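Components:
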Amino acid sequence: PRQKEHGDWATNLALVLAPKAGQPPRHVAEAIAGAFPDVAAVDGLDVAGPGFINIRLKSVWLHDVLRAILRDGPAYGLRRGARGDRVQVEFVSANPTGPLHVGTARNAALGDAVASILEADGYDVEREYYWNDAGTQMEAFAASVEARYLEHFGREAEIPEGGYQGGYVREIAEAIAADLGDALADAPAGERRAAIAKQAYDRTLEGIRATLARFGIRFDSFLSARLFYETGAIDDAVARLREAGYVYEEDGATWFRSTAFGDDKDRVLIRRTGLPTYFAEDCAYVVHKAARGYARMIYVWGADHHGDVKRVLGAAEALGIDPARVEILLYQFVNLSSGGAQSRMSKRAGDVVTLDELIDEVGTDAARYTLLARSSDSTIDFDIEAVTRQTMDNPVFYVQYAHARIASLLRVAGERGVELPGWEDVELDVLTDEAELDLLRTLSELPEIRELAAATLAPHRLAHYIEDVAAVFHRFYTECRVITEDAERTHARLWLSAAAKQVIGTSLRILGVSAPESMERLEGDDDTDAVVGGDGRP
RNA sequence: GCCCUCGUAGCUCAGUGGAUAGAGCAACGGUUUCCUAAACCGUGUGUCGGAGGUUCGAUUCCUCCCGGGGGCACCA
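Structure:
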């Protein structure tokens, strides 16, 4: 027999007796006793099908689970202390050439949730944003803003080939014009470009930081790519690769032999022009990360970067860094449409749906939850209008409502003067209804879910799990009246509810979604103006 | 052409070497003297894209094919 994958808190064990399926129940029971000598107490046992047996463990196990949740609170299910390793999660890292858009929203939500899950798993996590502010894209951006600035003052100017056409470029230019006037319009070209580049850069950074704050994301560090140029780190990295024997010169450029690591072709490190490529920055960056001593270095990349994986892992190995320390989490794109019309997500092309606009439409909670509720391997394909229209159908509200409902329940108990003994002293044997046991069983799955989510860097596991918890709680709430004349039962059910609140609340916070203490009732049938209480977000 | 990823209910998506493959939305019906009805209960549909293979057992692993998305720069 094999035990289905379950942790110590397992309450339903499914046994598979494959080779000899037709054994009589008595024989099966003996087999179980032999296989699980530690499991002395078995509430029920039935033969579910050929070779399959369900065992229900004594509810006393479930009571231990409840007590563990109440004792450990948010930490329940964590491997505290077992893993003190430092982990860096590098995410967002969008070029400061415009506002964050919906594609980077997925990166932001995913990276932050993964970081939180690992924190919850006992790691020492640092969140980093890499500003790629040294490349040709920045120059093109500056040139574009400059052109709009000149246009504003009636000068002849055109956005260069490959420049940025988005409306926000004009907004930035207008803002610069409003603050500085036309002083730069007649300045020498080089001076003007430098001044405008700095202005445009600073304003974009400020905007991105503001958007991230609105989205509930805080980074521990922002690292500028300029650092690598100023310290010679890129040259050092190339030199180390050369020493290792993976560098050669061809066609006037300097190449990394990434084919030695399974890449399709070798990659240029230093261009014919003498300028390093972005990949060379990557090499310097991975050295920088490794030198800071992270046990795990996690990159969060969009699917368009999947082709870069082998070269970066190869470079790490060539640089003497164990590639097992480097993990690259890829996520598929978010395809946006609005009323059926596709929206493009290229900053250069313009026509962008920004993260700020998304937050305006659906709010941070719904946006983050929606972006996290699906596997990162799966393309998210939604119509903005539909998401807005279905806001009240979003599972995030279902889960938040369960949390608010429990909070309300506990408040009412307090108002009615219910005197609650400590959870250690509560008589839990009164929890015997199927709805109560269901809730206990579901709550007991938390450690397993967290472990799985952490091991696979998959926040959506947690999202689906708390939908289950919410559903089971709602059923329990409907079927079992909590506050009654029966003091013993009231106490047990209140503590059970408190545990459910703990599990939901902690999980929501890991996902970066607020866990409201109250949600206002909906007025009438209008589904467009609902108000979420607690954090007061519309 | 090569590489990555997805294809599961009308729609949006979970699941994954084991049991009768699940949830939300959408449809229809029911539930509130009572702790928040944003809730609960009931009614159902699946060639798990297709074909082979491995296995006692495949939706899950392998191969091929078809279809969607993304890559294959001296861009980032």
